[in-house]
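Chapter summary example.
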Amino acid sequence: MTTLEDSTTPLAEIGSLIRGARQNKGLTQAQLAERLSTSQSAIARIEQGSQNLSVDMLARISAALDAGLLPIANTPQRPTHLRVHGGRTLSGTITVNSSKNAAVALLCASLLNRGRTVLRGVANIVEVDRIVAVLQSIGVEVEWVEGSRDLEIRRPAELDLSGIDDDAARRTRSIIMFFGPLLGQQPTFELPYAGGCDLGTRTVEPHMIALRPFGLDVTASAGEYRAVVAPDDGEPVRVVLTERGDTVTENAIMAAAGRDGVTVIRNASPNYMVQDLCFYLELLGVEIEGIGSTTLTVRGRSHIDADVEYHVSEDPVEAMSLLTAGIVTDSEITVARVPIEFMEIELAVLSEMGLRYSLSPEYMALNGRTRLVDITVHPSELKAPIDKIHPMPFPGLNIDNLPFFALIAACADGHTTIHDWVYDNRAIHLTDLTRLGANVRLLDPHRLDVDGPTHWSGAEISCPPALRPAVVILLAMLAAKGTSVLRGVDIIRRGYEQLADRLIELGAQIDTFQD
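The structure predicted for these 515 residues follows.
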């Protein structure tokens, strides 16, 4: 029987469309279940994207809702849009999902292991799907464990890099992190150019600087990276990173983990995804000293064959996104399972701006290493900070969290300068907030002036081609009175699992539709 799991249309997108069509009809899940002679729990699973759908069932749902859903099984996927009825107060508790960036690094690192890796609690997002597709295309067995959010990974004795899925690889920058684990396994190999968000020029040269001490030489030709790796002489390797980047550090760590001998990495990022990677590698028998610091000493292994399970830790950037939803709607919500070590600077800045919040006692994540808290934000009178808001390498304010401060600053009384010194073009995407009533001025490619408070009003906006600014615009629409439309929101699925549905659970009114 043909199911929509076999089609190219993601089940989560279909589920969102079915939910939107049901709500437009004014039906409850139970009422739709009655029309289809099925259970309310089955409808809930379908709308969550966790239930495979036969073409017959989709046709029945389409008829029950008079929604014309069936063609999506056989036609190219159309852009998905969100209609947001803003100005509503949110309430309740929402739980942070596992980290996108950690999951991607761990999937790449699984190439080091000839045994069985099970990653537990992986977010079902597009970025993960793309890396999974690339792994499968080179011969790695990757399967979702039925009825769970767990991925089981088994790599073959020899990888088939000639069969790599170019399309999936070119649509993600994460492919650049294949260099590190492949260094000790292939004397020569080719990888497609890295893609990802439209954030301006982001050179791969820091990665090359980090990996040259391991014998890597890369040339670019005809849309590909051609890599040649010199034999490893077993001598200690010393790496000094010229840029304390997260993925650069991860690449160096994976290169070090796959070789016999000692590697010292200086100016390393100690950020959350780097720590997750280190915790996983320790389970594989790799010794790492200095986790959480800027100097790492790695004693690797050229042959790793271990059966391991690892729980991916929670995502501090999603935590910031969810906290922002409560802040800008002047609501009291609780965000559960926040990795507090990676949110302390953000909370300190928010406290300076007048945010009232409370923290639960700390408890451990399922990986046994990451400290978590529940954070409750309360309605607050916000004021602009005295100094500019800018990111720094961890333990500074996270670069991925900076866009949310542009939105929060637009809700605060006074003048705020946002300095995004890392990316060339990301700041310009945040000027779309002016369409919703904000006073945001672009000073140059890296700086914004924001004056608040904003009297938000609804508007129709095309989704920015960058993940975090796209979510910022969606969250601003929650605050805007009236109806807003955010067009072409598929990029949000790159890093967030069913974000609109989860905001609805807090009381947001959001409809999913296609033209």
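To summarize the output: Residues 1-9, 196-201 have pLDDT under 50 and may be disordered.
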